[in-house]
Amino acid sequence: MSKKPDVVSPARRRSALWPVLAGLLLLVVAGVWFALDRGPAPLPVTTPHAAPVADAKPVRPAPHLVDEKQCQGCHSQQVEHWKGSHHQLAMQVADDASVLGNFADVTFKSDRETTRFFKRDGGFWVNTPGSDGKPKDFPVAYAFGIEPLQQYLIDTGAGHLQALGVAWDTRQNKWFHLYPGQGVDFRNPLHWSKPQQNANFMCVECHTTGFKRNFSAVANSFSSQWQSLGVGCQACHGPASGHLEWATNKTTLDHAGFQQSLLGGNNLKEVETCARCHARRAPLGDGFVDTHRLMDDFLPSRLTRELYELDGTIKDEVFEYGSFTQSKMFAKGVRCSNCHEPHSTRLRAEGNGVCLQCHNPAGKTSVAGVDGRGLKARDYQSPEHYQQVPGLSGSQCVDCHMPGKFYMVNDWRHDHGFSIPPQARALLGDSPTQRYAQSLDALRSGKPGAAAALFEQLQRNDLPAIRRATLLAELPNYPSQRALELASRDLRNDGPQVRLAAVEALAALLPAEQRVQPLAPLLKDPIRAVRTETAYALLPARQAVSGADFDKALGEYEQVQLSLLERAEANLNLAMLYRATGRLDQVEPSLRAALVRDEGFDPARVALVQWLDGRGQQAQARQLLDDGLARHPESALLQHAKGLALVRAGQRDEALKALRKAAELEPGNTGFGYVLAVALHDQGQRGAAMAQLSKSLEQQPYNRDVRLALMHYLQQAGEVDKANGLVEALRAINPEDPMLQPRS
User: Membrane-crossing residues (predicted)?
Assistant: First the structure.
């Protein structure tokens, strides 16, 4: 395989937040809507008071962004590297110089739609179906990225910028659709006109410097602003006003006038700086503060089954951070700029030169700050090294140790985990990554020994933080006293991603009132993401945890949602918060606002249906549900909600039809299958209920609730041997499960 260019393509970043973040934005499904109902308890209004400080030093003015042209006088070499780079050209006003695509009145036909590209009055235009499915002329506002593809941002009015789904291939000089063969049209969430393609939220922050979305919920409009187009100096180094003062007046300011330095120290600051864009993550506000830790402003994803392979290699579009922080390179102190020249974004050396900085015949690293212990003196470029593994013949290090995939159709990305290739693992024997992958496979497949493998992994002290957080997320499927102890221990872990995962695990393992003692200290955690998740976890026990720390952290959680009002998910989260804290007059407006932001966001529609139904407005609730089903008849969640509504109305036969339809539409959703089984059993169809549970258990053998329900039904039916078989299977999977322990 030939080596692919390993440069950072700004065009690829559009989907860094896509598909949107149900878990990352703390979205919860409809069933939890009622779980937070513990009676009204309005949040107190608190006013901070500043205590006087004697002999305080003069407070310096807050640093601010400056015109980056002022950087060129002193930093000409860096500026020359930056010119023409993917960073500089990440986003440009659409004009004859920036637009690379063919707009000479040409037509492109995708699976479902036709788009025409043309010029008018000196500007660039597309004629394509909009949100209503009707073709219309739209102006192109910005060119997005330069290579290997270029996208275009469409101005749809009220400040909304949308990323067109048809892009220009800059190598083959042709138009192509980013979702070929998926039948995308105006009804599909992937359509260019939908919220998932809103560039103000999804894209522009990583293609500009000093970006603010500035969304107005009242006007449903954006007045987005940036200091400059493209990724400039201050996007990474922070506001430069203090640096200019330092350079001009030769004042004695720390870090040459910047708030902090990316140089020196360990590699964490630099890696987290790059991760603001080079990570699959969700925002926790509008913009970021350069002095913050990553998880003060963003919530990076874990190694979920949807995003990563079992061994942690890339699967979906996840960018570099998640892979790199698993690697031995990261643990040894390697930082992004050791391999990539940060201003040009190019590799620091050709061919294997980057790797040979450390992996060389001398066995010594030439990179400052990197721990060279353990390096072997070996000629890694010799055929004896790369030909000893059957099936591997590439002479480039990246061919084996940085496997890649195409994303956005034509954009090749290397995995940054620097892993041992699978073909070599058999020769080298068991490795930490191999044991991790085997453990995760057992956990997600419900295999015998799964719990023991999980506990063994979590007892390791050398487990990368992102892997530890991923494993902690599996703990609720394997409850035991040891699970509680391991999760509790990781509440004190140095890694904020680990602490957050431990909070989530304990919240799932413990009843609300029992969470207070272990979790309350984390309301004062130094990292915002941990504080807000802790407050959310303690919300059901708010009467037992009231106090200034809880109020402040819960206020931060609310502020996060208020800063994301352009998203339906945030409006749903606010509705749930308002319901849980007794602000009932704000619940329905928030749910309706969610549907204004995205009428196809089914969780908000279901929550509103349940809210109206619970307040005696059954006719309105039914109409809302019928409207949704008329637009989206294949929505499993809406069919499921219809079934539950019919159950509440006493129409059990019709309810079964809807619940069965939901399970058929999403056979992998065991929640739908579980509810269908309960409904079947309640109507006397015990055999059908057990068959449905058996089917669900085959799909998710780790699902403890399904297993216990099936055991119960089998016992009721007198099928003792089958029930005992399930008990023994559970014992093999998790012998410490509370259901298997003798009752006192």
Answer: none
